[in-house]
Amino acid sequence: MIFSTLEHIFTHISFSVVSIVITVHFLTLLVDEVVGLDDSSEKGMVVNFFCITGLLVTRWIYLGHFPLSDLYESLIFLSWGFSLIHMVSYFKRRKYNLSSITAPSAIFTQGFATSGLLTKMQQSAILAPALQSQWLMMHVSMMVLGYAALLCGSLLSVALLVITFRKVITIIGKNNNQSFSFGEIFYMNERSNVLLNAYFLSSKNYYRYQLTQQLDHWSYRIISLGFIFLTIGILSGAVWANEAWGSYWNWDPKETWAFITWTIFAIYLHTRTNKNLEGVYSAIVASMGFLIIWICYFGVNLLGIGLHSYGSFTLTSN
């Protein structure tokens, strides 16, 4: 009873804190003159991190196993992963604020997890026989942390594309009023790099140029970290599958989409090694990866089939 009460307290506090953090971010976008709001949002994310940590530890003690046995627990852990990424970046280099990405991501995953749709999963249950293994913590935690990092990095790439294409469209609109296509945008990006750099480096747009460089830099670093987690998760899952089912790979829907996700981000990292493809082109690949991750993590669970069906999504019946 005590652990259940603590779990509810941590859940509501963390959800409320993240909601306030997002509200503060909107206020800072509208009113730049307000002093202390940005620092308050950073402290809010710190509080949220410790609340979700307390929630996971409480559930771990209460259930007697690491809380990663179903969709509800993995969503809470995913929200914790978003908060962890923010904490690392916050304490390493405070000037690079990732709250605009991590806070909405945390509230989305945590809000869905605590909604009425997953009420049955929130209740304690006996661990499925297939999950009663020491590989549970290793495999699932690495996979979910990999998803969290890859999602954050992909969202940074999406932001880079939005800023870049808006500016390219503005430049084209100023030069002529003719219609254009995305192919023409890519063509201009290849043939007019000098003009674009000169435009970005002008005093009026220097901040935007710095922002795009920071987005590209952080996207690459976070996706690289997520790719390492994903690789470890897939390899440990293969070992676990061999112990549980007698085969390292079964082309289960979850395994197949995990491999597709790994391939997409391997392509992204490969494009980063080519100077002509980094930036906009690599960001497009990462943006595609954002959709693939959600199909792998959540979309496959809607099917409720395959060897990973224990993590399927079931609506609560009234």
TrEMBL record:
Residues 68-308 form the Cytochrome c assembly protein domain. It is a multi-pass membrane protein. Keywords: Chloroplast, Cytochrome c-type biogenesis, Membrane, Plastid, Thylakoid, Transmembrane, Transmembrane helix. It holds the Pfam family Cytochrom_C_asm. One of its GO terms (cellular component) is plasma membrane. The keyword Chloroplast applies. The chain crosses the membrane at residues 12-32, 44-62, 74-91, 98-118, 138-165, 218-241, 256-271, 283-307. HAMAP family: CytC_CcsA. Required during biogenesis of c-type cytochromes (cytochrome c6 and cytochrome f) at the step of heme attachment. PANTHER family: CYTOCHROME B_B6 PROTEIN-RELATED, HEME EXPORTER PROTEIN C. May interact with Ccs1. Belongs to the CcmF/CycK/Ccl1/NrfE/CcsA family. This is Cytochrome c biogenesis protein CcsA. It comes from Corchorus capsularis. The lineage of its organism: Eukaryota, Viridiplantae, Streptophyta, Embryophyta, Tracheophyta.
